[in-house]
């Protein structure tokens, strides 16, 4: 059986706010490594579970789903937020 990882969605590098960072994602670990397609050269594999991402509103909901479906999982802790506080005048020093 394929295991899964549960992690909190990180902030997108293109956004300044924290939209959808409170959601949790369940993602399957790959069963086989990706290999280049002989025709196009694009990476791919026969494992279709790596295309599946399930979003949940909380960690408990994600854990409950995995336990109910019998999916072994591990939780990746969210990184701590580091605030970089600076004044606008610091740009002109």
TrEMBL record:
Subcellular location: Membrane
Highest taxon of the lineage: Bacteria
GO CC terms of this entry: membrane
Main location group: membrane
GO terms, biological process: electron transport chain
InterPro entries noted in UniProt: NADH_UbQ_FeS_4_mit-like, NDUFS4-like_sf
Alphabetized UniProt keyword annotations: Electron transport, Membrane, Respiratory chain, Transit peptide, Transport
Pfam family, one: NDUS4
Protein name: ETC complex I subunit
Organism: Stakelama tenebrarum
